Automatic annotation (TrEMBL):
GO terms for molecular function: sialate O-acetylesterase activity. InterPro entries: SASA, SIAE. This is Sialate O-acetylesterase isoform X1. Residues 1-20 form the signal peptide. PANTHER family: SIALATE O-ACETYLESTERASE. Residues 109-319 form the Sialate O-acetylesterase domain. It comes from Cyprinus carpio. GO terms for biological process: carbohydrate metabolic process. Keywords: Hydrolase, Signal. Pfam families: SASA.
Length: 511
C-alpha cells in the first residue's frame, strides 16, 4: 500500500519550501525521461524559486523563454516542438545563479490514467504477467509517471509525493506491489497506442482503489449534481470488503488539481464499482459532469493548450457477483453512458467506451471484481482512442447497438446499426428480457420476463414474446444482470467478432 500524506503534514512541508528562498526547482511531475506534449500544442513548464528572480528556460541550448518568479512560483510555455530526438531542458534562475537541467526529454502525446482499483491493478497481476513484464524494455519511448497516494481537504498546488518519477519502463516499475505500482490498463493502453502512432507516449497514472467518483470531483462539479460536500461511506472492494469513508473532492484536491498545468492529449478512466451502492442514481450526472469539469480545468490550467473538449475514454464495468441483479453494477453500466447506452453521445461528446461485460473472471486471485484480463480492455480503449482522439476513419470501436425494436405477430424484431457476428447461437440463456406492463411503467424487475432468441440475420435478432397481451409489451432490455455472459461468449458481437454489443433498454413499437 502506498503511503498517504495528510494535508496538515503537506501544508507544513510546502510552507517550508516557499519560505526557503534558495530553493529553485521544477514542479514534482517534471524530470529526466519525461514526455512533454508535442506540437501543435505548447508544453507548460513551471516550478518554484525566489520571488522576483528571473528564470530562463531553454531546450537543448535554444528556444529560450523567460519568466519571473511570482509568490515563489515560476511558469512559462514552450514554443511548439515536433517529435524528434531527446532534448535537455534547462531552467536557470538569476540572483542565485542556480541552474537545473533535465535530460532525455521527449515530445509526444501525454495521457492521464485515473480511477479506482481496476485502474490501479498492476502489470504484475495480469494474465501472462511474466511475458508482459519481459516486453517492458522493448518500449523505451513509452514513459511512465505515477503520483503517490494523497488526499487533502484543500486544493494543492503540487503533488504531495511521487511514487514513480518519469522513467523508461522496466519490469520492476511495472510489476511491484499489488494495486500499488504502475497501472496495467494504463501501460497496455500506452504500449498498444505506441505501436500505432510510432512516436513517444507519456503515461501519467493517478488512481486509488475503492474510491467513489465524488472523491475525484471538484466541489463545483458536485454542486451541479446536487451532491453537497460530505463524508462518503462506501464499500472498498480494494480492501476486500472493508468500509472506508471518503470526503468529497479529497482526491481531486491532491491527485488531479496539482496536474492541471500539464498539457495533455486526453484521459482514460476505470471506476464505478464504489458507486454501485452509493449515489448510484446520481452517477448519470456525477460522471459526465466530472468529465466536463476536468476538461474545463485542464484547459484553463494549461493556458488553453489542453483542448477544452479533450478525448476521454472509460471502461464500462465488468462483473462482480453471479446471479445477482441487485448489486448495482447493471445500473452503473447504464449511467456510465449518461443513460444512452453507448459513447460518444449527445451528452458525452468526444468520449469512447471499452466494454468489459464479456470479460468475467471468477478465478481471479484478486477477486472476481478484479478480472486479470486487462489486455482486451486496453485494446478496446485504444480502438476508441484511434477513432475518437486521432480521427482514424476505418477503425471500428463500438459494438452493435439497436436502432429500433418492433412487435410483429408473436415475435419481437431488434434491428442493429451494424452487421452482427454470423453464427450467433440460438439459445435460451435468457440474455433478453421483455417488459410486460399494462401501465407502461417498467421500473420494477417483476415486470420483466426472460425471452429466447429464435432467429437472427445480418442486422437483426428476433426474440420470442412472453405470455403477455400484445398491448402490454412495452420494452426490451439486454444483458441486464451483473454477470450475463461467460468469457467472450455474449450472444451479439460486431461482424468481425471482436466487439460485444453493450447492455441496452429500448422501447418496442408496434408494426
Amino acid at each position: 500500500m502506498l503511503k498517504t500524506v495528510t494535508f496538515s503534514l503537506l501544508l507544513s512541508a510546502f510552507a517550508s519550501v516557499l519560505s526557503a528562498a534558495e530553493v529553485f526547482r521544477f514542479s514534482s511531475y517534471y524530470g529526466n525521461h519525461m514526455v512533454l506534449q508535442k506540437a501543435p500544442a505548447k508544453a507548460v513548464v513551471w516550478g518554484f524559486g525566489q520571488t522576483g528572480a528571473k528564470v530562463v528556460v531553454s531546450l537543448s541550448g535554444s528556444n529560450n523563454v523567460s519568466t519571473t518568479v511570482i509568490n515563489g512560483i515560476w511558469r512559462t510555455t514552450l514554443e511548439p516542438v515536433e517529435v524528434g530526438d531527446p532534448y535537455n531542458l534547462t531552467a536557470s534562475q538569476s540572483i542565485t545563479n542556480s541552474s537545473i537541467t533535465l535530460t532525455d526529454v521527449l515530445f509526444g502525446d501525454t495521457w492521464l490514467c485515473s480511477g479506482q482499483s481496476n485502474m490501479a491493478f498492476t502489470v504484475g497481476q495480469v494474465i501472462n504477467a511474466t511475458e508482459e513484464l519481459a516486453l517492458a524494455s522493448k518500449f523505451p519511448d513509452v514513459r511512465i509517471f505515477q503520483a503517490a497516494l494523497a488526499h487533502s481537504d484543500e486544493e494543492l498546488i503540487d503533488l504531495a509525493g511521487v511514487e514513480v518519477p518519469w522513467s523508461r519502463p522496466t519490469a520492476e516499475l511495472l510489476g511491484g506491489k499489488q494495486f500499488s505500482h504502475f497501472s496495467a490498463v494504463c501501460w497496455l493502453f500506452g504500449r498498444y497506442l505506441y505501436k500505432t502512432l510510432k512516436y513517444p507516449i507519456g503515461l501519467v497514472h493517478s488512481s486509488w482503489g475503492g474510491t467513489p467518483v465524488e472523491a475525484w470531483s471538484s466541489p463545483r462539479a458536485l454542486h451541479k449534481c446536487g451532491l453537497m460536500k460530505s463524508v462518503l461511506p462506501v464499500q472498498s472492494y480494494f480492501m476486500e470488503g472493508a468500509s472506508t469513508n471518503w470526503n468529497s473532492s479529497v482526491l481531486w484536491n491532491a491527485m488531479i488539481h496539482p496536474l492541471l498545468n500539464m498539457t495533455i492529449t486526453g484521459a482514460i478512466w476505470y471506476q464505478g464499482e464504489a458507486n454501485a451502492n452509493y449515489n448510484r442514481d446520481k452517477y448519470n450526472c456525477s460522471f459526465p459532469v466530472m468529465i466536463d469539469d476536468w476538461r474545463m480545468a485542464f484547459h484553463e490550467g494549461s493556458d488553453g493548450q489542453t483542448p477544452l473538449g479533450f478525448p476521454f475514454g472509460f471502461v464500462q464495468l465488468s462483473t462482480y457477483l453471479k446471479n445477482n441483479s441487485k448489486d448495482g453494477f447493471r445500473e452503473i453500466r447504464w449511467h456510465q453512458t449518461a443513460d444512452y447506452g453507448y459513447a460518444p453521445n449527445e451528452r458525452m461528446k468526444n468520449t469512447f467506451m471499452a466494454l468489459a461485460i464479456d470479460l468475467p473472471d471468477d478465478r481471479s486471485p484478486w477477486g472476481s471484481i478484479h478480472p486479470e484480463d486487462k489486455q482486451d480492455v486496453a485494446y478496446r480503449l485504444v480502438l476508441g482512442a484511434r477513432a475518437v482522439a486521432y480521427g482514424e476513419k476505418n477503425v471500428s470501436f463500438q459494438g452493435p447497438f439497436p436502432t429500433h425494436a418492433f412487435l410483429e405477430q408473436d415475435f419481437i424484431y431488434i434491428v442493429f446499426n451494424q452487421g452482427i457476428e454470423q453464427g450467433i447461437a440460438i439459445t435460451n440463456d435468457r440474455f433478453f428480457e421483455i417488459c410486460c406492463s399494462e401501465d407502461k411503467a417498467c421500473g420494477s424487475d417483476g415486470k420483466w420476463f426472460h425471452v429466447d432468441i429464435v432467429k437472427h440475420g445480418l442486422y437483426y435478432v428476433i426474440v420470442s414474446t412472453p405470455q403477455c397481451p400484445a398491448a402490454n409489451i412495452t420494452a426490451v432490455r439486454y444483458l441486464w444482470t451483473d454477470w450475463p455472459c461467460q468469457l467472450k461468449a455474449c450472444p451479439i458481437y460486431s461482424s468481425d467478432g471482436l466487439l460485444p454489443a453493450p447492455p441496452f433498454i429500448l422501447a418496442i413499437t408496434k408494426q
